[in-house]
Amino acid sequence: MVEIKPTTSTVQMDDGVNLRVKAIGENSKSTKPLLIALHGAPGLSTSVEPEATFTFLSDIFRVLVFDARGSGGSDMTGPYSHDRWIKDIEILRKWAGAEKFVLAGWSYGGFISLDYAVLHADKLLGLMLRDTWANGILGQMTALGNILTDDRLHVDVARQVRVWSGNLRDDKDFEEAIPEILPIYAPPEDPSLKGPVKDNDELKGFEGMDERAAYNSATQNAAFSINVPCFDVRQKLKDIKTPTLVVVGRHDRITPVEFSQEIANGIPGSRLEIFEHSGHNPASDETEKFRQVTLDFLRTVI
C-alpha cells in the first residue's frame, strides 16, 4: 500500500461556521469511493479516533473525517442539533464531489448516522454503526445506571447526573467528569489478550481526545438535554434499506449489546458483529478483527 498523506482543510458551512476537515486517501484516482466517518461524544471527541480507525482503508477509499461543529478544532458555534449536523454532512459530501458514499458512525456519531440514513438513504452506498443505540432516553438512562453501579468507578454522582442529563455547570465541570468514568469504556482485563488496560495510554484517545480537544459543555448540554431525549428511530429502522453493518463490543456498558441487536433486527438485511473481547470501541480493542470485518462488508457495497 502506498502511503498517502492526509490533507487538512477548513471548510465553511452555509451559515459561515468553519469545520476542520481531514481527507485521507485523496490522490489522482478520483474514482475511489468516499467514506465519511463521524466521531462520538460531541463537545469532547474529535476526528482523531475515526482517523485512526479508518486510515487503513485509504488505498481503496477517500476517507473524510472532521471535527463536528462544537468539537475540537471546528468553530464552537451552534446550533448543536441533529438537523444541523446532518446538513453539515451533506455539505461535506458535496464538497468532496460524491453523489453517494459510505457513512460510518461511532457512539453518538451512530445517532447522527441513523438519522441521516432515515432522511438521505438515497445518498448512501453503505452504513456502518459501531456501539450505538436507537432510542435516546433509554440509552442515556442505561449508561448512567451502569456508571453509577460499576464497582471499578468512584464517581461524583451528582456530576455524572449533570453530564448524562445535559446540565453541566461549565467546561470545568465537564473536564472533571470524564476521567472518573474512563475505565467503563474498556473491556475487562484478559491475560490471554494484550494484558491490563493502561490508564491513560490506551484510553486517552478512545474518544478522540488529543491536544486539540476542548471540553465544550455547551455542545454536550445541547446534545443530552435536547437532542437525545427526542432521538428515537426504532420505528423507522425498517425503512432503512441501505446495506448496514452493526458492530458492538460484548463488554460495552455505555451502549450495550442489546441496543445493537435491536438495530440489527430492525434494519432489513443488516449484519451484526459482536466482538467478544471488546468494550466500547472494537476498532481499538480488537483492531485486526475489526479491520477484516470492515473490509468484508465494504467489498459488498462497492
TrEMBL record:
Pfam families: Abhydrolase_1 (PF00561). Residues 33-283 form the AB hydrolase-1 domain. The keyword Phosphoprotein does not apply. GO terms for molecular function: peptidase activity. InterPro entries: AB_hydrolase_1, AB_hydrolase_fold, AB_hydrolase_sf, Peptidase_S33. GO terms for biological process: proteolysis. Transmembrane segments: none annotated. The keyword Hydrolase applies. One of its GO terms (cellular component) is membrane. Belongs to the peptidase S33 family. This is Proline iminopeptidase.
